[in-house]
Amino acid sequence: MTLETTGLSKAFGGVTALDGASVSFHQGEVNALIGPNGSGKTTYFNCVTGMIKPDGGTVSYQGRDLTGKAPHRIARAGIGRTFQLCRTFPRMTALENVLSAVPPTGLIGGLRSARGRAEIERAMGWLTRLGIEHLAGSEARDLSWGQQKLLELAGVLMAEPETVLLDEPAGGVNPALLDRIGVLIRELNAEGRTFVIVEHNMDLVMSISDHIVVFDRGRPIAEGPPSQIRTDERVLGAYLGV
Ligand SMILES: Nc1ncnc2c1ncn2[C@@H]1O[C@H](COP(=O)(O)OP(=O)(O)OP(=O)(O)O)[C@@H](O)[C@H]1O
């Protein structure tokens, strides 16, 4: 097990977003977290990465308790994430965006080291790996939505996280780029990175995942390999409302 939560709970006013979610994601695998709209997936990511504090329950990573820790502590523990609505600096170039990604050593150290030649080469390496090196000098706001998602991922990878949480990597992305994102995730996984992916595109989820966890109303209702999840009646029920 790599990332594990027990009884994770979070309510917003009267709305229960997470209802005692006990989940284990597998180290070294591509894990997916799926479920209907509003089932608590993004809230789960937010609790795990310290963006919001859970009302109850625990988060542990590689056996370490990370419950309620600040986002930079969680990043330093080896967890990186992207956001559903993509976070880049629109008026900075793609290269500057990747260089300004906060490394685990903290912002000041990051800005200082970002000036180094080696860091620029490493940033260019990630842009190349993600197929957007030709956009290194372009402002992020001039990139297409899909390219911005790749740029955000390049920034996350700069911090060399061993586990990467992706919130809807395929959302709004054109089919050609979608294929590339799928291949990239599998390649990065083959190099040893663990992934947890929140995604609505079932073709992508079924084709790249080793392990799938299904949420409904703030808690897991099923988990297993794609072959099992595809035919699980509880999953079909949650999605189709039957
Ligand atoms: N900051 C917030 N304030 C109030 N309610 C919230 C907040 N964040 C989430 N919620 C509510 O919590 C529930 C779970 O939302 P969440 O975004 O975690 O679901 P999701 O599974 O990620 O949905 P989607 O697939 O649509 O992105 C929803 O009812 C949502 O409206």
UniProtKB/TrEMBL annotation:
Domain ABC transporter: 3-242
Keyword Nucleotide-binding attributed: yes
Gene3D superfamilies per record: P-loop containing nucleotide triphosphate hydrolases
InterPro entries per UniProt: AAA+_ATPase (IPR003593), ABC_AA/LPS_Transport (IPR051120), ABC_transporter-like_ATP-bd (IPR003439), BCA_ABC_TP_C (IPR032823), P-loop_NTPase (IPR027417)
Keyword Acetylation among UniProt keywords: no
Keywords carried by this UniProt record: ATP-binding, Nucleotide-binding, Transport
Superkingdom of origin organism: Bacteria
GO cellular component: plasma membrane
Record GO terms (molecular function): ATP binding; ATP hydrolysis activity
Entry protein name: ABC transporter ATP-binding protein
